[in-house]
């Protein structure tokens, strides 16, 4: 039996704010991306972001502390290697997003555009948040792709999502000063109780809306988890001038 059609997958995204598309990456493509990412992580090839720089819960206290040079993200994936560029602009991703947006998709190089890592011991946990909290666009209709380069689940830092949160109206008082959704606030509890963490196999992709609340625990396994993450917007949406969102040249997908 064949799986859901692209139209059905897009409908799921619109309904719950995310959708898992199984086996989206071809086996040879996946292997090449995983091997490239492992090499670049071993080299800590610049530009990188360190766990100690963000100071999320569980991160090393400083770069001088134990685990201080634990990499959180390999930044600027698009500029790192042709393999990353080929993935981010692949016809299959372009076709899926065109079906979602109803027009040409554009790759943001200022946001995500990275290999996201989650290390045992020093990989921090990430609280509930919406990605749009620190992006500046003319509309809040961006979609991100999260490619699992290995197995992902709750215990190794897999993503949790709150279904339907992308379509909800929240008050500023429901977030802290850094715009994390307050987990102990009574009015937030019904939302957090809905949390789901889909198990991902290597090659699975999660498409998720920029307003979908999501979070991740630390990595309790003995292996580094690697994911390739990009963000896209429809061609009629524009990054706002003078903001980080407009600080780099974005890439229209053919």
TrEMBL record:
Q: Which Gene3D superfamilies match?
A: q2cbj1_9rhob like domain
Among Pfam families, the record links this protein to:
PhyH
Cofactors per UniProt? Answer: Fe(2+)
Q: Name one GO molecular function term.
A: 2-oxoglutarate-dependent dioxygenase activity
Top-level taxonomic group: Bacteria
Q: Give the protein name, as stated in the record.
A: Ectoine hydroxylase
The scientific name of the source species is Bordetella ansorpii
């Amino acid at each position: 039996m064949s799986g859901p059609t692209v139209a059905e997958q897009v409908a799921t995204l619109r309904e719950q704010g995310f959708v898992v598309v199984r086996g989206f990456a071809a086996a040879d493509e996946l292997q090449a991306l995983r091997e490239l990412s492992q090499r670049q992580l071993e080299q800590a090839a610049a530009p990188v972001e360190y766990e100690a720089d963000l100071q999320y819960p569980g991160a090393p206290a400083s770069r001088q502390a134990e685990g201080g040079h634990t990499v959180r993200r390999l930044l600027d994936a698009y500029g790192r290697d042709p393999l990353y560029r080929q993935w981010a602009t692949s016809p299959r991703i372009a076709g899926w997003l065109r079906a979602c947006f109803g027009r040409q998709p554009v790759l943001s190089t200022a946001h995500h555009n990275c290999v996201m890592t989650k290390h045992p011991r020093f990989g921090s946990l990430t609280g509930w948040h919406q990605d749009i909290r620190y992006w500046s666009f003319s509309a809040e209709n961006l979609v991100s792709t999260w490619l699992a380069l290995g197995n992902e689940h709750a215990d190794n830092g897999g993503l949790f999502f709150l279904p339907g949160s992308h379509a909800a109206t929240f008050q500023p008082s429901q977030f802290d000063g850094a715009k994390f959704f307050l987990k102990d606030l009574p009015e937030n509890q019904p939302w957090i109780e809905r949390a789901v963490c889909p198990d991902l196999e290597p090659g699975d992709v999660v498409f998720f809306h920029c307003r979908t609340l999501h979070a991740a625990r630390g990595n309790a396994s003995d292996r580094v988890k690697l994911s390739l993450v990009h963000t896209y917007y429809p061609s009629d949406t524009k990054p706002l001038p003078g903001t980080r969102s407009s600080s780099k040249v974005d890439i229209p997908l053919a």
